[in-house]
Amino acid sequence: MTDPRLDSLLLACPGLRLKTDPADLEHYGRDWTRRWTPAPLAIALPGTVEEVQAILRWATAQGVAVVPSGGRTGLSGGAVAAHGELVLSLERMNRPLAFDAVDRTLTVQAGMALEAVHNTALEHGLIYPVDFAARGSCSIGGNIATNAGGIRVIRYGNTREWIAGLKVVTMAGELVELNKGLIKNSSGYDFRQLLIGSEGTLGVIVEATLKLTDPPPASNVMLLALPSFEVLMQVFAAFRERLQLQAFEFFTDRALEHVLAHGAQAPFDEVHPYYVVTEFAAGDGAQEAAAMAAFEDCMEHGWVSDGVVSQSDAQAAQLWRLREGITEAVARYKPYKNDVSVRISAMPAFLAETQALIGQAYPQFEVVWFGHIGDGNLHINVLKPDETADAEFLTQCEHVTKLLAGVLARFDGSISAEHGIGLVKKGYLDSTRSAPEIALMKAVKRAFDPQALLNPGKVFDL
Questions:
Q1: Partners of 210 in beta bridges
Q2: What pTM does this model have?
Q3: Which domains are seen in the chain, by residue range?
Q4: Of 7, 91, 179, 425, which is most buried with the most CB atoms under 10 A?
Q5: β pairing state of 105-109 and 96-100
Q6: Could you tell me which residue ranges the FAD-binding PCMH-type domain spans (predicted)?
Q7: What is the pLDDT of residues 139-171, one digit of tens each?
C-alpha cells in the first residue's frame, strides 16, 4: 500500500521521480560502510533546483527527515537512511552549467561525478585538481559536503580551497547563493565555508562554482621500497626538500599483497615491508637529476631499499594502481576503517605510538595501513576474518578506536581526516572538538534546521 505521505509529496511536487522498490531502497539507503540496514521511506530524484525546494518544503511541513545523497561512496555512514527518512538523491542533477574563462571557474550541478568534472575542465585546457580513487562514482556535492582530500592534497589542498561559490537549499526550501564566485568578500560570515564539510546536515548543495587551475608540469612517478616504518618521515623530508611534490603516499606489504591478488603487477622481485609512491614535477633534466639525487641520498642512509621510476604514462598508471587499488582489493573483508590525521611535524611520534597500539590491540586481525603522509593523514584498515561474526568484530574494533581517540587527543589530531564524522565516528567527536566547540556546532545546526530533519543523527545527536 502506498504511504499517504508520498501521495502528498507528489501533490507538492508534480512529476517528481520516486523510487520505492525494495532493491532501490536498499541501494540508495546505504553507503560503503554496509553497517546499518537501510530502511528509507522512498527515494526522491529531483531534476531541478525547484524540485529540491519543493521536496524540502514538503518535508518541513510533514516533519519527514531527509538524507541528501550523492555517490554514497562515504565510509562514515553519512548517507545512511535507516529510520524511514526520505533519501534525496541528486544523481539526475549531473551536468556542467557554465564555464568562465576569465575567472577560470566551472559551475556544475551537485550530482556531477568527480571524473566528469575533471574531463570537463580538461576540455577547457584547465584542471580541477582534487582527485582520489573513487573519482568515477563519487559526486562533487558529496566531495564538498565532506571537504574531501585525496591523493594530491600535498600540492593542491582539500576541496575547501577550490570552491568559489555554492547554491544551497535550506530545510525551509529557500535557495541561498553563497559567495557568488568572489575572490575577496569580507561582508559578514562566509556560509560557503560553513557548508563545506557539513555532511548534509545544514542544507542541500545543488550547484557549485569550482576554481580551476593550469595543468601541472610534466611529472614522474617513483615507487620506493622502505626497510622500516621509522624511516618514512626521513624519506619524505629528503624528497620534499629537493622536489616539487604532487603526492607522497605510503602503504604496507600487506596492502600490496591484496592489490597484487586483485590483478596488479609486482613492482620488485623481492618483498619489502613498506612502500611509498610519490609523484613530482619532472619537466626538465634538472628536476629529474634532483629526483635521482634524493633517491641516492636515501639509499646511502639506508632509508630506501629499492626503487623504480615510471618511463611512460602507462607505467605511471601501473605504479599508482598499487596505491589506489587498495580499498577495492580489501573490500570483501568488510574492513573497519580509521581515518585520522595529525600535524606533519607530529607524525613520527604519532606513527610510533599508533603502530605499537595497533600491534598490541589487533594480534588476531590483519591490519592494512596506507596514507597521505605528506598531509598527515593515516588510514588504518582492520580486516574481518571470515569466521568472526560481524558484531564481535565491530565490538573489538570500537574498543581500540576509543584508545586511538585518546592518542589523537594527546597529539591534537582529528578522528576524521577526510571521510567525515557521519554515524561511525560521532562517538569520538569530543576527542577532536572541545565541549564549547560542539555546543556551537549544535547551535548552528538548530539555526539552519530547527526541527533537526536534515540528515539527523549524523555528526552529533541533538
A1: 106, 163
A2: 0.90
A3: 4-92 (3.30.43.10), 96-211 (3.30.465.10), 219-327 (3.30.70.2190), 334-422 (3.30.70.2740)
A4: 425
A5: antiparallel
A6: 36-215
A7: 999 999 999 988 888 889 999 999 999 999 999
